[in-house]
Amino acid sequence: MALGRQSLRVMAVGILTLLLLGAAACGDDKDSSSGAQPTGAATATTAGAQPKSGGQITYGLLFFSPTVDPILNPGQGATGGDQMHALYGNLIHVDSDSGAIVDGGMALSLTPSADLTTWTLKLRPGITFTSGEPYDAAAVIKNINRFLNPALKASARTNVSLISSMEAPDSTTVVFKLKQPYGALAPQFSGPLGYVAAPSFLDKWDAGDKTATPVGAGPFKFESFKTDEALVLTRNEKYWAGPAYLDSIKYVSIPSPTGTYQAFQSGQLQVANLYDPPTFQQVQKDKVPFKLWNIYGSIGTVFNSRPESVFGDIRLRQAVAMAIDPKLVNDRVWGSALPIVGSQFVAPESSWSSPTNIKQPLDPAKAKQLVDAVKKDKPGWDGSVNFVCYTGGGGAPENAGLTLKSVLDPIGFNLSITKSLDTNQFVQQVSVNKKFDMACWGGWAFLDYDPYSQLFPSFYSNQAGNLSGVNSPTMDAALDALRVAKTPADTKAAMGKVNDDFINQSIGAIHGANPTVDIYTTKVNNFTLMGRGIPLLQKVWLS
Predict the structure, then answer these.
(1) Is residue 3 part of a domain?
(2) Which domain holds residue 487?
């Protein structure tokens, strides 16, 4: 399946006020209302039918957020953003393909200064939280200050690290002063920074009352929540844009892609996230309606370069990267179903790809020489390394370790496999505690219209999200250049340096990329995605 290119995004110094009211809501998320090839067409609606109110949808999630605290959610559509948007709304809505601001958010405009160091946010007047509190500049500042508080360990901490100060000239205006120029601040408010909770709720929550009822101003309001089971939201009759059509949404988590699809086929789910190439192939064969959002660099193996891991020796990282054939991984692990196969960090399908980008060489003989050299220098090491992955109903995670073992043991490694972890345990061990040698990983995905916000926390030196632990001045310089890129040529050049340093430092081994997909039944009408893959469920109605 060929994936459509993301539109080039120009980050010009001369950007004027980004007026949401004057922007067109394009809805360019890739979709197929009949299950055919994605075309980027408009959303599916039953022909000639009029929207009607009523009904509940049950939404099967790839990642069920363990908390209702907006600062503890990664914020993408498949990782908590869908739930947070429905409950809290978003300050900014961006087009799913181009990243351009479109109408629909809680803010009217976001205006940068000429040097991109000052941004002014204007809120819609008259919005209130479901508690009756004003949705105003003070509330926005209170929420963003929580991201800036290191004691709260916000998942999006790095997205706000450039903010030096905030002030509110009036109740509907927030002025952000940045430490350095940044041309892509707007998309940050379409994700975690855009989920604004009521101050009264935050006061209780931060004081230790984790039973406090969450209060937002989104299209739905809180009804009930059971960790790892379900989050139920009901319609907010006072939503600023008018009440949603649906009476309620029930979010649930099913721990495997095949299980999720089976639940969808049996009628238990009306909408579901999928992130599994073989299951997505079946979705297309079954002609199920779907929408996808393109992400790149998302399937691979990460190496822990810290001193306590054997991969602190770059030669071993290089050896593994040289030995793994992405085509072999695709065939054995993913059933030849990956839509993008290759070892470049910036995939050729990305708008930011360049023919001059370094490609990872495939050279098992050289890889064996590197392993032998390390054994000679370290007589006590017998080649032992551990690979960590998670259990999954699709079989791919389990097959990954066996596939790597068949490649690495012949060149001198002795690979053991840890695979009896569910996804939450895996994230805790690998992402939080960083206790691993090698691990399967899909967290390097980036959006073409906003690569910096994902790549900065993943690769910049000493960031909590820098999973590999590689601290590279060359990578830092590339990311600094990406942050201030003013033209597509600037962005492409910076992304080329990111790609090259990823390979030169052997941060990991890329096998390919795969989009996240939302599927929905034919009774679900007007299902649309905005940027970050976040569904606009306030527009959905059931026939």
Answers:
(1) no
(2) 299-513
Residues 356 and 501 in one domain: yes
* Best CA proximity match to 483, nearest among 462, 508, 463, 460: 460
Q: Are 444 and 279 in contact (CB under 8 A)?
A: no
Beta-carbon contacts of 134 under 8 Å, excluding residues fewer than 6 positions away, are: 127, 128, 171
Contacts of 499 (CB under 8 A, 6+ apart): 344, 345, 346, 357, 358
Whether 306 and 221 share a structural domain: no
**Residue in the block written with tokens 């994902």:** 454
Q: For 379-409, how does the pLDDT look when each residue is reduced to its tens digit (9 = 90+)?
A: 999 999 999 998 765 556 668 899 999 999 9
Q: Is 432 exposed, middle or buried (0-12, 13-18, 19+ CB in 10 A)?
A: exposed
pLDDT digits (tens, 9 = 90+) for 432-476: 889 999 999 877 878 788 888 889 888 999 887 889 999 999 999
Q: How far is residue 146's CA from residue 153's CA, in Å, rounded to a whole number?
A: 9
- For the packed helices 473-483 and 452-459, what is the interaxial angle rounded to 10 degrees? 160
3-class DSSP state for residue 271?
strand
10 located within any domain: no
Q: How far is CA 244 from CA 29, 54, 252, 376, 538, in A?
A: 21, 9, 20, 67, 4
Q: Is the dihedral of CA 208, 212, 217, 221 positive or negative?
A: positive
CA 332 to CA 176: how far, in whole Å?
Answer: 49
Which residue from 357, 305, 345 is spatially nearest to 472, judged by alpha carbons? 305
Within-domain flag for 1: no
DSSP 333-395: HSTT--SEE-S-SS-TTSTT--TTS------HHHHHHHHHHHHHH-TT--SEEEEE----TTS
- The predicted-structure confidence for 3-31, as pLDDT tens digits, reads as follows 333 332 323 222 223 333 333 223 335 55
CATH of the domain at 159: 3.40.190.10
Burial class (CB in 10 A: 0-12, 13-18, 19+), 457: buried
Element (H, E) at 145: helix 137-148
| Per-residue three-class SS string for 34-84 | CCCCCCCCCCCCCCCCCCCCCCEEEEEECCCCCCCCHHHCCCCHHHHHHHH
Residues 396 and 257 in one domain: no
Mark whether 279 and 305 lie in a shared domain: no
Check which CATH number belongs to the domain holding 311 and give it: 3.10.105.10
Answer yes or no: do 41 and 169 share one domain: yes
Write down the pTM of the prediction. 0.80
Please check whether residues 387 and 527 belong to one and the same domain: no
My answer on whether 397 and 465 are in the same domain is: yes
Which residue is associated with the tokens 């408009």? 42
Report yes or no: 280 and 274 within 8 Å, Cβ to Cβ.
Answer: yes
Torsion of CA 348, 351, 355, 360, to 10 degrees: -40
Say whether both 269 and 329 belong to one domain.
no
